[in-house]
Each structure stands twice: as structure tokens, then as C-alpha cells.
Amino acid sequence: MKKTISIMLRWLEFILSVLPVRLIMKWIPDGTVDILRRQIYPIAKSLSQTWSSKMKKYVIPLFLFILMSLFGCKEQGSVNESIKRMDGSRIAPRELELAITGIMEKAGVTGLSCAIINDSKIVYQQAFGYRDKSAGTLNDKETIFSGASFSKTVFAYLIMLLVEDGTIDLDKPLQEYLDQPLADFPDYTDLKGDRRAGQITARMVLSHTTGFPNWRFLTDDNKLKIMFEPGSRFSYSGEGFHLLQMVIEQRTGKDLDELSRERIFIPLNMMHTRYVWQESFENNFALPHDEYERPKTLKRRRKADSAGSLQTTAGDYARFLVAILNATGQRKATLDTMLSPQITIRSERMFGPGAWEETEANDSIGLAWGLGWGRFDTQYGSAFFHTGHDFGWQNYTVTFRDQGMGVVLMSNSNNFESVAREIAGITIGDSYSPFDWLGYPRFDPSRRREPPPERVAIDVDPDILKNYAGEYSFLGNRIFYVKLENGQLYGSDDNQTWVRMNAESETQFFIESEDVQFTFVANDSDQVTGFILHTEGIEIPGEKRN
User: Fold this and answer.
1) Per-residue pLDDT tens digits for 255-303
2) Contact of 336 with 375, CB cutoff 8 Å
3) What span, in angstroms and rounded, lies between the C-alpha atoms of 112 and 408?
């Protein structure tokens, strides 16, 4: 044995003298790297502390060499395997990558992370394009992306686990879990006097039938209201998820990120996924890019948000889908409920004016919402899907449950949705997803145009700027802080992380690399009373508190 190890060490020393370990690692299948990192490496590290100094430098490389021998055979996701599609056809990874790259180039999709599921297991994962185009840095398979509304599906899964263990009942009014009337909570004072607030249940939240708007700032008066009898129809709402999150956190005494780590991320080996920003993400994160492929400021979400703060990778999210597909026993029964139709969808569109227009166009595919997921029927069986959309982030996922086939597409680009159907089609042969109902535009090359000129900052008298310093309330009890420092305005939504507010005029300001502008307003006595926040075509008023 001693002689064998000696020979292996000599060969290893030769290999390492020619090729760096970093390059060798690229030859090892992803599953092997995962085993190395989580199981073998700790053992090697422990041994290295006891071996002689001469041997220490060989310990971990030796384990790597052994793993290369043990796992050198082809495993799932190997570049030599073809990918199966819905119609039974197959596509080679290289052919797929050329096709995706071509689609991205024509549409100006800056970056994309993709994971594909065949036979209820991950068979392919790859990253494309840039995580920061201006710097020329590329995405890789462990680059962190914003999940946006993928957050809702993970939260729905968590709720179903809590239903399974009896922590919450899907049909018990959420008001009954609270120690005071809902309208007494600062975020819900707008609901005072509305009896319907006491009817809302977890089932209604997860099936988007609470009656809430998507967000209160989208209403005419920026107030939270119930727009129809809870449970009577579908209307997508992030506000409902915020309510259920508040109830769950009070019920369990734990915040969402902690609960999700315990119940989902750790058990499912989602090691690059959290609801709040982690310092470890700083080494490899993607920046959002606008339609002109200009990088914008990354929002490091410090507070867990069930509706939109999930940070993840396509691979981690695919592991989540695989867990759903492979559930057995009571867990499968729980997830059967999650994926069963709860409300038929008859709106023309998911968002916008079409969300209030009725149609039977999607009856043929049984378009409906389950608990946290959209779902539809095809000749290949049922499928569940979700979208994720934020400024500079556009994501889509669909899984054909009966076929054990799915795809995760995560993009740091404002142009992805225009070609989402093409990429879903080329990856798994999906021609069934309701992209028109989602409002995804079809790619139009004539829409590509030169970007507008960048905003230009000017100097403003500090005596004018000091009038803007203070706290501003908006969207209920949210606070935006403004301070004057060294003759320059800075803003913050948490009183910790500050960004420079550049002046375009004496009243108008913008934040560089963000689609955000502020117009400060004053009364007849020239006292600053508030601002109007402009973002993505929306105007949100804020009131000065001091």
C-alpha cells in the first residue's frame, strides 16, 4: 500500500507540474466536484493536519486524483450525453449551446444560466454570456442570480411543509393566527373597516385569490385594498405573499430565511441559495442589465422577502424541482395538493389591462393556478410553471411532471422574455407554455435601437440640497432616508447602505446605474413636503416626515 501511494504521488506531482489543479477540476463531473467539496475534502483537510509537512501538500491533490479515477466514467450531465425533448427527439449539448448562443446574440440577452431535467434528474447545466458585460466577466454555473418571483414557489413549498406538519391550515383565516386585528398592523391600516380582510387564508394567498393588487403602489391612490371577494377569481399578488410571510414568521418565531435554510436549502443541497444576501455571494454574482445591455446596480437584499428576494443558481433551483418530481409517500401527497388546480384562469393576460378581461382561449389547456404554481395540461400530461421578473432580471421555468422533464432559465437581462419561447423550445421541445398569457413579447429585431444618452449630473447649491435631507414615508410604512454629506445628497432604504443621488436640476435627481429618479416637491411656502419616485414608468409618492 505504501509503495502504491508513493507511485501515485509521483504521478500526481508530474501532472500538477504540467496542469494546474483548477484546470483538472474542469474535467471532473459536477456531481464528483460536489462529493469532493462536501465529503472528501473535510477528510483530506483533517488528515493534512496530522501528516508530515512533506506529505501535507499532497493530501488534497491525492484525494482529487483518486476521485478522478473513481468517477472518471460518464455521469449525468456529461458533455457526451444528448438531451431528450418532449417529442422524443434529442439534441447534443454542443448543438444546444450554439443555438442558445445565437438566440442570445440576436436578442441582446446579456447572460443566461440554464439547467435541464430529464427522467426526473438534472442532465445538463451551463452558463452563457456575461455577469458584467462592461467588465467582460463571464457567468459560470455557480454565478448567483436574482430569482425574483421564483421566490414565491420556494415559499409555497415551505408553506406546504408547514401544512404537512400541522403548523398552519390552508383554510383557516390568517387573522386567527394573529394576536390583534390585521388592520392594527402598520402595513395593513388601509384595510380598516373591510370585513373581507378576515376571510383571507393561506390557500387564497398561494392561489392568488386574496383580492389584493399585485402591489399597492400600482393602485390609483397607492393604498392596499381588496378589489373583489376573496377566493372568487385569480389576480396575481405579491402583497398576499407578504401577509402570509408575516403570519408564518409570527407563528414559528423564525424568519423566512432561517426557516427556508432548515426545511429546504440544506436538505436539498441548495448551497448557493438564500433569501438574504450573503457575503460569500460577493465572489461570483451577476449584475442586472437593461435592454441596451448596460449593467445596473445590484440590489443586495438584506431582508427576506417571500415575493422576490431569493438569490440562487439555475442548478440549485433545478435540485428543488427534482425534489418535487421524486417525492414519495406523504410528501408526494402534499405536493400533489400543491400542484393541483385551485382556480381556473380566464383572464386574457397575467398582468395589465388584459388581467381584467375574460376569455376562454386557455380552457383547452386547462390553464389554472395551484398553490404557488401556474399549471396547464398537454398531450404529454400536466405541467407546472413560474416566471420571475425584476428590472434587469427575467427568469422562466416549466416542468412536465408526468414526463419528469423540465428546464430552468435564469437571465440577467431585460431582453430574455422576447426569446424565452425559443429557448424553451430548443432545450426541451416546449411549445406548450402560455407565453402569450404571460405577456412575453415575440422577438422583433426592429425594436433594437441605440441607447439614449446617459444622464448628466450637475452641481447644486448645498443650501438648496439641505432642504431635502430627512425621512420620507412611502408605500405604507416604508421609509426612504436622504442625507447631505460633503455637499452631496445620498439616499438609503435601510439607513445603512447609501447611494449617491445625482442632480439633473435643483429638484430632479437620479441614482446612477439604476432605473430610479426622484422629483422633490414643495408647498407654496417652499417647504419640501415629499418626493415622487419614478421607476419603470411608475410614479410613487413619498411624504416627508421630518
Assistant:
1) 999 999 999 999 999 999 999 999 999 999 999 999 999 999 999 999 9
2) no
3) 10
